[in-house]
Write a structure and sequence with these properties.
By secondary structure, the chain is mainly beta. It has helices at residues 4-11, 148-154, 159-164, and strands at 14-15, 21-27, 31-32, 45-46, 49-56, 61-65, 69-77, 80-85, 91-96, 107-110, 115-120, 127-135, 144-145. The chain contains three helices and 13 strands, in the order αβββββββββββββαα.
Length: 167
């Protein structure tokens, strides 16, 4: 049975700036030229990228947003709550996991430009081991970590979750 440390070592996972651990596993070799992308991108992007992402219980992925849709895939461990604040201010809780009777799904999509954070829901010592696929491909130039005070001002109805899931 795998534990957090054995997954980190086996897959060569690295600390992620938003929290947890990751490793890029795929980056399409070709690129999409800027003229073929929405103007928000500015520069060429890979067609698609994929990562492994590991969050131990007690840790969280801080609120952030990117310019692409992000498809989440469940692999192993406890369920993962994905907290989404859509650009119109609507809050949505998505649950990634393998227990369909509890409303969990093996795949979920966080839409481009939405603020989102995630946290595993389990007992101490457990983890959520998932994957993320992004198209157009992920680039840290498209990544924005939330400023809790600014985001709380913009979405005051969600201040408690914003404060709790920001770094």
């Amino acid at each position: 049975m795998m534990n957090t440390q054995s997954l980190i070592e086996f897959y060569g996972l690295l600390p992620h700036p938003e929290g947890g651990y990751y490793k890029e596993t795929y980056r399409f070799n070709g690129i999409i030229e800027p003229a073929c992308l929405p103007s928000a991108f500015g520069e060429a992007r890979s067609f698609s990228t994929a990562i492994y992402f590991l969050l131990p219980v007690g840790n969280f992925s801080a609120l952030h947003r990117i310019k692409s849709d992000e498809i989440w895939h469940f692999y192993e461990g406890c369920p993962l709550h994905i907290h989404v604040i859509h650009p119109n201010g609507t809050y949505e809780l998505m649950v990634l996991g393998n227990d369909h009777s509890q409303g969990q799904s093996f795949q979920l999509v966080v839409p481009a430009h939405a603020w989102f954070a995630s946290e595993p829901v389990g007992a101490e010592g457990e983890f959520s081991f998932v994957g993320c696929t992004v198209a157009p491909g992920f680039d840290f130039a498209d990544f924005e970590l939330a400023d809790a005070d600014h985001l709380s001002f913009e979405f005051p109805n969600h201040k408690a979750i914003i404060q709790r899931l920001s770094r």
